[in-house]
Specification:
By secondary structure, the chain is α/β, with parallel strands linked by helices. It is 29% helix and 19% strand. It binds alpha-D-glucopyranuronic acid (GCU).
Length: 413
């Protein structure tokens, strides 16, 4: 009897086996795992927990709580930044856990003209805080900077003066400030390395080594999302910012992180996702564009190890990305896509918006008004927003105009 029990235990999978869904049948966020329909707000709260558990264990991995100790060091305040238009602050977020330490910097621009406290947009950047503007007051990052063909400014992996403002085109600071929003940003490499050769061994991952030793490990997308929440911890202490009106923004892999941040942390009032694609807003079930096999082999650190069990099962997944939007509901979310970004399957992002409408309506909002795929450059929105624009994988002024309109509508009343 004892040995039979022993065999039972070691043969049991680490996670409950989730039933494969027949191809084409999208799992319903408003139906419990046991098949019962969600009928009340109280039931929705329970179902939301079930969805959170599914997405955590099966895809994004487990994130820690707040670190044992945190300290915010405001090491720079310039009330006259951008010729007096903004106040620039730079803050090091110091974290300690069981004697280990890690930190990353926040770069913040607050419009001087607007009435304080102001709403804000927070997002991770690809190339370093110094790359979003030519402002010479911005600290050059000490973290690794890759030398791309387009921006060959780093020397031996280190940022140089030539790296200032190399990414400013994607961060229209003036327009953001003119719309009355503060901008808060942080560099992905300071938070957690995006190089698979050093995955989980840098930044915030060094605080929680025990979270790697499991199938639902603390992934890199989850670490980026977690750091956005630590940024929010700081914003709650800053009297110039209205922490109840903070939108979380991201582009591409960093939009995958923004969506997960919105899903896991209800303090974010809104999510702005720019071409998040696979593992972001795109519906896997369609089987179009980047698939789970590519995600889990080319970028093995982005999602938890458990997710790789679904390679080649994109169309039978027991969940899909509308579950992430269901976790964000009823808070507003915008999915921006581009015609040339076929890898991220714009129609697949549209399908996710459509499939999320029911939860948003159940929670008393106007949901998503899109029924047919819109023409290019037409923003379709209520509580969920969507557009497709011409061009490729990028963040353009058109994208930002829609994000700012949407943010104005929901956060500036
Ligand atoms: C790759 C990857 C995408 C990702 C993109 C990016 O193209 O396949 O999933 O969104 O990189 O982050 O730029």
């Amino acid at each position: 009897m004892k040995s039979a029990l022993f065999f039972l235990i070691i043969l049991m999978p680490a996670f409950p086996a989730f039933a494969r869904q027949p191809a084409g049948k999208l799992p319903d966020p408003l139906v419990f795992n046991n098949g019962q329909k969600v009928k009340s707000d109280a039931e929705w709260n329970k179902r939301r927990q079930e969805i959170l558990e599914t997405m955590t264990t099966q895809m994004y991995g487990t994130s820690p709580e707040r670190p044992e100790k945190m300290q915010f060091e405001v090491f720079d305040t310039d009330k006259n930044a951008m010729n007096g238009k903004a106040t620039r602050k730079q803050v090091t977020v110091h974290m300690q856990e069981k004697g280990k330490e890690a930190s990353f910097d926040l770069l913040i621009y607050i419009p001087n003209k607007a009435e304080h406290p102001v709403p804000a947009i927070i997002g991770l950047n690809f190339l370093g805080n110094h790359a979003i503007s030519k402002d010479p007051g911005i600290k050059l990052t000490n973290a690794r900077v890759e030398n791309s063909k387009m921006f060959p400014c780093a020397v031996n992996g280190k940022a140089t003066e030539a790296c200032r403002g190399t990414n400013s085109r994607q961060w229209p600071l003036d327009s953001i400030l003119d719309s009355g929003f503060a901008l808060v940003t942080m560099y992905r490499e300071e938070v957690a390395s995006d190089r698979k050769e050093e995955m989980f061994r840098t930044g915030v991952h060094t605080l929680f080594p025990e979270l790697q030793n499991r199938e639902d490990n603390f992934s890199t997308v989850a670490a980026w999302a977690w750091a956005l929440s630590r940024g929010m911890d700081y914003l709650e202490t800053d009297k110039d910012i209205d922490a109840k009106k903070v939108a979380v923004f991201g582009f591409s892999r960093l939009a995958k992180a923004a969506l997960w941040a919105g899903a896991t942390d209800k303090r974010f009032a809104m999510v702005l996702s720019n071409e998040s694609g696979a593992g972001g807003g795109k519906q896997f079930r369609r089987g179009v564009g980047e698939n789970i096999r590519r995600l889990c082999t080319v970028f093995p650190h982005w999602f938890a190890r458990s997710f790789s069990r679904y390679m080649d099962q994109d169309q039978e997944l027991p969940f899909d990305q509308h579950f992430v939007l269901a976790l964000i509901a009823p808070r507003p979310v915008y999915l921006a896509t581009a015609q040339g970004d076929v890898n991220s399957d714009p129609e697949g992002e549209f399908e996710t918006a459509k499939a999320s409408d029911a939860v948003y309506k159940f929670l008393g909002t106007k949901g998503f008004p899109g029924t047919v795929f819109p023409a290019v450059n037409q923003s379709v929105y209520a509580q969920i927003g969507f557009h497709i624009r011409p061009g490729g994988h990028d963040v353009t002024n058109f994208d930002w105009i829609q994000f700012l309109n949407f943010s104005n509508l929901h956060l500036q009343q």
